[in-house]
Design a protein that fits this description.
With 177 residues, the protein is mainly beta. The protein folds into two domains: 34 residues, no CATH class; 128 residues, Nucleoside Triphosphate Pyrophosphohydrolase. It contains two helices and ten strands, in the order βββββββαβββα. The relative contact order is 0.20.
Length: 177
């Protein structure tokens, strides 16, 4: 296994705390102490693609690390017992104050997100979101600023997170706005 493999971050069994937590196969580790087998899976995350009547994309500027100060789209991690649709609705409300009235799944991109020096593997689910009143948009939570950008003013390299940059490239290439 490469040094980048997520198993390197897990040295102790999450069930009993034993250090006898060894690689079982490319997807799991096994505890030789208690017999628990842990399968490593990505965390679910959401990304909102919100377009206004003029065909402009709602973009935010990140207020926190990672990639503080770069452009982003509203979104974030799903909470336990929350669907991806519920997660994107909540994240849009938290970061922009907007109420999502409908969601439509677009595509997903695997990603890594470093938080507190810990690499979280994610699967970022992109949703086209319709909101009820774009005029109420106000930056909050992880968003320092909100702006509406026309497709010709969107540059993928301005987006700090890898999956968002790849998603923006796909959106622009496939004219999904």
């Amino acid at each position: 296994m490469s040094a980048e493999h997520p198993f390197a971050q897990f040295r102790f069994c999450p069930k009993c705390g034993s250090p006898k937590f060894v690689v079982n196969n490319e997807k799991s580790k096994h505890c030789e102490q208690c017999g628990f087998t842990y399968y490593f899976n990505p965390s679910a995350a959401t990304v909102a693609v919100i377009v206004n009547e003029q065909g402009q994309l709602l973009v935010c500027r990140r207020s926190k690390e990672p990639s503080k100060g770069t452009l982003d789209l509203c979104g974030g991690f799903c909470d336990c017992y929350e669907t991806s649709e519920e997660g994107v609705i909540r994240e849009v409300k938290e970061e922009s104050g907007l109420d999502v009235v409908s969601t439509e799944y677009m595509f997903s991109i695997p990603n890594t997100y470093v938080y507190s020096d810990f690499t979280v593997h994610t699967i970022d689910n992109f949703f086209k979101c319709k909101v009820n009143s774009i005029h109420k948009a106000q930056a909050a939570d992880d968003a320092e600023e909100l702006m509406w950008l026309s497709p010709q003013d969107i540059y993928p390299e301005d987006f700090g997170l890898n999956s968002i940059r790849k998603g923006i490239e796909k959106i622009l290439k496939e004219k999904l706005l």
